[in-house]
Write a structure and sequence with these properties.
Strand content of chain A: 15-25%
CATH architecture of chain A: 3-Layer(aba) Sandwich
Distance between the termini of chain A: 38 Å
Order of helices and strands of chain B: HEEEEHHEEHEHEHEHH
Oligomer: heterodimer
Structural class of chain B: alpha/beta
Strand content of chain B: 25-35%
Largest sheet of chain A: 5 strands, mixed, barrel
Structural class of chain A: alpha/beta
Chain lengths: 272, 272
């Protein structure tokens, strides 16, 4: 079956259960799924029930859409995403973003857990993504271009929408939540970076490093969606001061930062 | 069918169309196809008629060889090339270069449209490529090495032939064409680079950034061909000027510089 047909079938399935076009989509990163506890009038749709959806395999990721309200806004949250390192193709990784756009959603908040590289950061910080560097060695738009989705050569000079970012920054100020700003670099993973790799990444301009987000943001831009990116700095990745990493610690830090994260995202949705 | 057998069949087809061995091949980049209008005693060979040739899918690319006479030399020009971002694997992207070498061509001029990363450049500049950085995330020589084509570990220390660079710079001086020179960095595309990626390229030593050329130059070097590379700087890369990028701008600028591009390449071919 062709990509457009798969997309169409997923769209038809979701439209049956979603009465209003969501004002905003939120992709919830590792350990940040608790935002979904604050969604009211909830409809939960398991990925496994949606035609052509891949399955999420990572512990800490649920694998469901949660549709409902935060304040007076209609939102669709992705609890669980598909990672390139799981072995999905870039097309599969970004399939949910295509599906979300097909529902008529124009704005997306993409969140993740990442390693902090800027020495001014500390574990538990929230970072607004101002720009990204794709070091994954692949791109979700390689292949035939679907003109109905977007242009062959999408501009990426405003990949993280400046206006959307301003709403984020103002909300953080209003709520007195300290935030950082910076450049997110995506590598494939799944191994964490070596100290030599971290030095290289710092040299090329990285403030945070992770294994997701960039493919989704590329496709969202191709589809002309407005993107806001938020990284939760779950550990510091400073090459000369590295402690052995484990996934449990990443989740534990995200747990601590999640109160700030939830307040911030709720505030942004309110102010949008 | 193995690669060598396919190369041979394609080559046999070309040999049936032309009864000479071209002195030089020219790959014409986006918007630079008009050089082929200068060729006399012209033979057009459509890619679609050549066994095992992929098809070009990009607007502004024709998809044919133009063979004939130019400035006292026998030339074969590629109007339209195969890009990695179109979804071809690296072996398909570089297949034409394999065929050209098998035909007996030992010198190749590779041209492209590129974004200026060096802030001393301006749109409309022609850049002689002195070296390249492969950030495509792939390499056309990955896989079994075919020893009759070239060595397992090809040297890349003089990927762009110094003698040809000297000739090109000499012609530019004689013809009073302003040229710059620098390092071409390839990223896969098809997204234009983000401002953060452009900064990275500059930090790494890139002067221009584009989505082609490097695979072909790698294969040409593998086969011991002499390479000259010319970039037409059609726009400043993302983040340098406060404006989005689009493909129309690329084509527009290459149209404006085509006269000096044609004079330069003709002068070079004459003196080779």
């Amino acid at each position: 079956m062709g990509y457009l047909d798969m997309l169409h079938e997923a769209n038809v399935f979701l439209k049956k259960q979603i009465k209003t076009v969501p004002d905003v989509a939120v992709i919830l990163g590792t350990g940040l799924g608790s935002l979904s506890d604050y969604i009211e009038n909830k409809t939960v749709i398991k990925y496994t029930d949606i035609p052509h959806f891949p399955k999420s395999t990572v512990p800490g990721h649920a694998g469901e859409f949660i549709i409902g309200n935060i304040y007076n806004k209609n939102i669709i949250a992705m609890n669980g995403r598909f990672h390139y390192y799981e072995g999905y193709s870039m097309e599969q990784v970004t399939f949910p973003v295509r599906v979300i756009k097909s529902l008529g959603v124009q704005k997306i908040i993409v969140t993740n857990a990442s390693g902090g590289m800027n020495p001014d950061f500390k574990a538990g910080d929230l970072m607004f993504i101002t720009d990204h560097i794709n070091m994954m060695g692949d791109n979700p738009l390689i292949g035939k271009n679907y003109e109905e989705f977007g242009p062959r050569f999408p501009d990426m000079s405003n990949a993280y929408d400046k206006q959307f970012l301003n709403i984020g920054l103002n909300t953080a100020k209003e709520l007195s939540i300290p935030v950082q700003k910076g450049v997110y670099v995506a590598l494939t993973g799944p191994m964490y970076e070596t100290p030599a790799e971290l030095k290289m990444l710092r040299l090329i301009g990285a403030d945070a490093v992770g294994m997701s987000t960039v493919p989704e943001v590329i496709v969202a831009n191709h589809a002309n969606m407005k993107v806001l990116g938020i990284s939760c700095i779950t550990d510091m990745a400073i090459p000369d001061n590295l402690k052995p990493l484990d996934h449990e610690r990443v989740i534990a830090t995200a747990e601590k930062a999640k109160n700030n994260f939830v307040s911030l995202v709720k505030g942004i949705i309110k102010n949008m | 069918m193995d690669e060598m057998a396919m190369v041979k069949e394609s080559c046999d087809y070309l040999k049936g169309c032309i009864d000479y061995i071209p002195d030089v091949a020219v790959i014409l980049g986006s918007g630079l196809g008009s050089l082929s209008e200068e060729v006399t005693n012209k033979n057009i060979i459509k890619y679609e008629n050549i066994p095992h040739f992929p098809k070009s899918t990009v607007v502004g690319h024709a998809g044919q060889f133009a063979c004939g006479d130019l400035c006292g030399k026998k030339v074969i020009m590629m109007q339209g090339r195969f890009h990695y971002y179109e979804g071809y694997d690296m072996k398909r992207v570089t297949f034409p270069v394999r065929v050209l070498k098998y035909l007996g061509v030992n010198t190749i001029i590779v041209t492209n449209a590129a974004g200026g990363v060096n802030t001393n450049f301006k749109p409309g500049d022609l850049m002689i490529i002195e070296d390249h950085i492969n950030l495509s995330g792939n390499n056309p020589l990955i896989g079994e090495n075919i020893d009759e084509m070239g060595p397992r570990f090809p040297d890349m220390s003089c990927a762009y032939n110094k003698e040809l660079i000297k000739i090109a710079k000499g012609v530019a001086k004689e013809e009073k064409i302003n040229v710059v020179s620098g390092v071409y960095c390839m990223m896969s595309g098809p997204t234009y680079e983000t401002p953060a990626e452009v900064k990275m390229v500059r930090t790494l030593g890139g002067d221009a950034v584009g989505m082609s050329t490097v695979p072909e130059v790698i294969v040409a070097n593998h086969q011991g061909m002499k390479v000259l590379g010319i970039s037409c700087i059609t726009n400043m890369a993302s983040g340098i000027l406060d404006q989005p990028l689009n493909h129309e701008e690329v084509i527009e600028t290459s149209n404006k510089v085509k006269d000096k591009f044609i004079r330069l390449v003709k002068g070079i071919i004459k003196q080779m």
